[in-house]
Amino acid sequence: MDERDALNISREVAKSVLKAVNSIPIGKRGEFYGIGKSGVTKLVDKVAENAALDILKRERLRILSEECGYVGEGDVFVALDPLDGTFNAVRGIPIYSLSLCFSDSENLADAFFGYVFNLCSGDEYYASERAFKNETVITVGGKENLEELNAIVYYPNRPLPFKRIRALGSAALETCFVAEGLFDCFIDIRGMLRIFDVAGGIYILEKAGGIVVDEKGNSLGSKRFELSERLNVVTTNKKLYRKLLELIL
Question: Which residue in 102, 96, 50, 93 sits closest to 75, CA to CA?
Fold first, then answer.
């Protein structure tokens, strides 16, 4: 499989998931469906996952998904979050997304394609050698001064010197917002992010010229496509990350 195949598959998944999610009235999206591999499963999560897997299972892929864990067999691994931002989707807050990351192994370091689809606006982000938003090349911003930063932070435990701070509720999209320069950094060091939440966004951001490390400045390349994997992330441009690490430690 090459990046063109991955893009075509991702677009087909996005179309299917969008139709499935939009078929559920907002008032019913949060209904209890059952207990999945990652905990409580809401109706909208399962419907989105089923729609994604209906497409992905046609291919020779080993898929790690939020609700069902690993399914399928193949030489290419896919980290799938069919609905990143369930809280927002259930309440009709228009910030939630689909995320996929394709890799030649279970390791994030071997990823070769990332895809994030904004299920509210229809914008798509993807990357192989370069990063794109709707077929236009994107790059991270170049700010260097902390006082000028527009930051996404979960959650400040002390005053930070940034211009503004937000928390939007979809890590995949928030990472892409940094990739395209809408925000200057995304920081989440709660130890709660799962690999499928951000794998696609991480790949896109790195191809947009950004950097992603943990709270100690370590690369995330050793992270694996596993349900038990938890990540801390600091994403920004290459000029800023050391300043951010000094600030949050």
Answer: 102
